[in-house]
Design brief:
There is one protein chain. The chain has 251 residues and is mostly helical. It folds into 2 domains: 95 residues, no CATH class; 132 residues, no CATH class. The chain has 8 helices and no strands. Helix 3 runs antiparallel to helix 4, helix 6 crosses helix 7 and helix 7 packs across helix 8. The radius of gyration is 19 Å and the shape is globular.
């Protein structure tokens, strides 16, 4: 039965990954989501067999059947990553309310990771409505309403203050409004402690990449992508990190 559950999550996850690929391309360009999938380059409709998650990329030989240009690899990558991350959550939380909430948050974060990475955009439709969703479901999970509100306000306020200070000091834009809304949404799902950890981890990851990028042609990754990675780490091992830290200082 356990293997059956894993297989179901993998199949559903790959289908969700297929849809995320559509969101990543269409949301920043404001293309209707319900229209038929098309080639990114020649806009020709994709054949049904090429729309099958994971297999479609293989069947197409990585090229559009009409214009023969290469299909971007990230579509295939998303269809692989999504079920793997959802299966990992299942292994930790089982079919609990936390699993479904964290799966929703993970799906949102995967979409945001790639929209921010490729287009420097974090669509409001992926953050603002789900602040309310995170707060609403806090009544039924272990987080609690007050903790959800604290996480959302704390995350948004910290980033808002940082953005203002950075702009005043450097006269340049640092954190965007999308980042502020993103961390507020994450805070409504994770609460105060894990949101604080997410901010710390994302900053730490960003610092490491900045140091590495000095040797690789100034590689640029938007901060929203670091937040997403840090969020997933917080979901999986955040509480263990916090407990270990407190034990280290005997708190």
């Amino acid at each position: 039965m356990f293997t059956f559950y894993i297989a179901i999550i993998f199949v559903l996850g790959s289908c969700i990954g297929w849809f995320i690929g559509i969101l990543v391309y269409r949301l920043p360009r404001r293309i209707p989501l319900l229209s038929s999938p098309t080639c990114d380059y020649c806009n020709s409709k994709l054949k049904s067999k090429y729309q099958i998650p994971i297999l479609g990329y293989i069947f197409s030989l990585r090229r559009c059947s009409n214009c023969f240009r290469k299909i971007p690899f990230h579509y295939f990558l998303i269809e692989i990553i999504t079920p793997i991350l959802l299966i990992t959550l299942f292994l930790k939380f089982g079919f609990s309310l936390q699993y479904y909430l964290y799966s929703l948050l993970t799906i949102l974060c995967i979409t945001i990771f790639f929209t921010d990475l490729f287009n420097r955009i974090i669509p409001d439709v992926l953050t603002l409505p789900f602040i309310a969703v995170g707060i609403l479901f806090s009544f039924w999970n272990n987080l609690g309403f007050i903790e959800s509100i604290k996480g959302s306000i704390f995350g948004g306020a910290i980033f808002f203050i940082i953005a203002i200070l950075y702009k005043r000091i450097t006269k340049k834009e640092g954190l965007g409004r999308g980042d502020i809304k993103l961390i507020a949404m994450i805070g409504s799902f994770l609460g105060f402690k894990l949101t604080f950890l997410t901010i710390f981890l994302s900053s730490f990851l960003g610092m490491i990449i900045v140091l590495i990028s000095k040797h690789y042609n100034k590689m640029f990754i938007p901060f929203g992508s670091y937040i997403v990675v840090a969020t997933y780490l917080s979901i999986l091992i955040g509480n263990q990190i916090i407990e270990s830290y407190l034990k280290l200082w005997r708190i």
